[in-house]
């Protein structure tokens, strides 16, 4: 090979790599910097508005296929730093999200807001605690989750379901600071407002409103395109109220990013779906409790066909109905 040809070859290789680098870089995450197991599941960063980004998790229960990536999260870049909403379901996913943020801006992450303490939204906090100076913010009732017995039991279950992404080194990271009904982060060019709407899906449900770009992160107050998870500490009446608060936001948000499911520009559809689903559970289970109809019978007699084809129906719907049945029983002073 002559020197000229060799040089030409090098230039071609150089240009070729240069051309490829941005595309490869967009997906590249440096796992050698951390002890978390590599999560090779693809995570597409989407843009809701200028400076506002989000990622959408998969449907389903936590398993090796989704690697625990079942919930949504996002962030807003402001003059004074980056505010993140939710941290995803494993330290590996938290790290992956942090690397995505670093791909967009060199500004530091100043805050991580947790929309509610449930395992699928918080295990990624470990990466933010280990690798940023961000303040972790949550509603004051989040402390109950952190110090309660359920959190450890859930972690144990996830160490099995999501190994190696959740392992012996995975820990529950509590908030650094808590707030009451409302908190405003004045971030220079943008105002970020946190509004507590729980207890609903969880005691600490919090919306994050990004004023200016006018984007709302609703957390698990809204699920879109799948059956929601209704836990055993649900307040379904207040959940409906929370859905209405989202519906009545003024000005109407440019985009609402739900806790699960795609971010639909037509947020009205997600609101309508949640309203319908929670109302139906409350009506049917309420009637049954009032008439002393056992759960099994009430469940079997109800026509659920409008929800049957949706993701997560088999995994969650029956338990959802049961949890609302128990809730109604409690409220009506039943249970004997
Ligand atoms: Zn949840
Ligand atoms: Zn969730």
TrEMBL record:
Q: Where is the signal peptide?
A: 1-26
Superkingdom of this protein's organism? Bacteria
Q: Identify the residues that the record assigns to the Metallo-beta-lactamase domain, covering every copy.
A: 70-260
Q: Which InterPro entries match?
A: Metallo-B-lactamas, NDM-1-like, RibonucZ/Hydroxyglut_hydro
Alphabetical keyword list: Signal
Q: What is this protein called?
A: Glyoxylase, beta-lactamase superfamily II
Origin organism is: Thiohalorhabdus denitrificans
